[in-house]
Amino acid sequence: MKIFLDTANLDELRKGAAWGIVDGVTTNPSLIAKEGKPIEEQVRAICDIVDGDISAEVVATEFKQMVEEGRKLTKIHKNIIVKLPLIRDGVQACKALESEGIRTNVTLCFQAGQALLAAKAGAYIISPFVGRIDDMGEDGMELIEQLVQIYSNYNFKTQILAASLRTTNHVIQSALAGAHIGTMPFKTLDALFNHPLTDKGLEQFLKDHAKAFGNK
Q: Domains of the chain, with CATH numbers?
């Protein structure tokens, strides 16, 4: 499973990129707004840090404007994936942009029927939101499992990007379910390193080494 960071913060991206395990980045208007920089400037800076798929979202909600904005976003960098909301105009824009060779990430997916439409339109990536579904008292991971099965049934090429992954368990379950990509905040990625037995084991190894060899 590819690991993407869901952030527009350059410091977080530099830390993640330094570990050598970040394959791409997802952003949205809210994340960009937090950084206080124009979208083109911030996205260009992100592309300079991470060499992988970088999702940049349109803010238009009507078909023609979405297509125009999508074309403009792709001019920022060759790695840009145009992110579109899963609404009627968004799916129509997905079809139009994909027909031009522009890759898309159809986002705000909350049920399998929506994901089926995105795949039919040729989306490069579909983004089901695990955590937000959990917030509604439903099982977000069940949606990932459904999409893996449906896309396999019909050999759709659309990649399943498990989004809104808030815990390490979300990440692990997404990988087990067969999601192609998991996108997560920096704190979730960082938490994947942690286990008390790792810390305890390392501490013991170092104590044993110091006891045997001292500071020689």
A: 2-213 (3.20.20.70)
Half-sphere exposure in the Cβ direction for 145 (13 Å, CA): 8
**Of 186, 188, 187, which is closest to residue 171 (Cα–Cα)?**
188
Say if CB 83 and CB 26 are below 8 A apart.
yes
CA distance 193 to 168: 10
Query: How many other β-carbons are positioned within 10 Å of the β-carbon of residue 163?
Result: 31
105-137 pLDDT, tens digit each:
999 999 999 999 999 999 999 999 999 999 999
Give the C-alpha separation, 127 to 120, whole Å: 15
Point out which residues pair with 181 in neighbouring strands: 2, 161
Q: Which amino acid would we find at residue 124?
A: Y
pTM for the structure as a whole: 0.94
Question: Which residues does the annotation mark as catalytic?
Answer: 83
**Partners of 82 in the β-ladder:** 56, 104
Looking at the DSSP assignment, which residues form a beta bridge with residue 104? Answer: 82
162 contacts 179 by C-beta, under 8 angstroms: yes
Amino acid at 132: R
Q: Which of 146, 152, 160, 159 is nearest to 113 (CA)?
A: 146
User: Rounded distance, CA 74 to CA 30, Å?
Assistant: 20
Grouping H, G, I as helix, E, B as strand and the rest as coil, residue 94 is helix
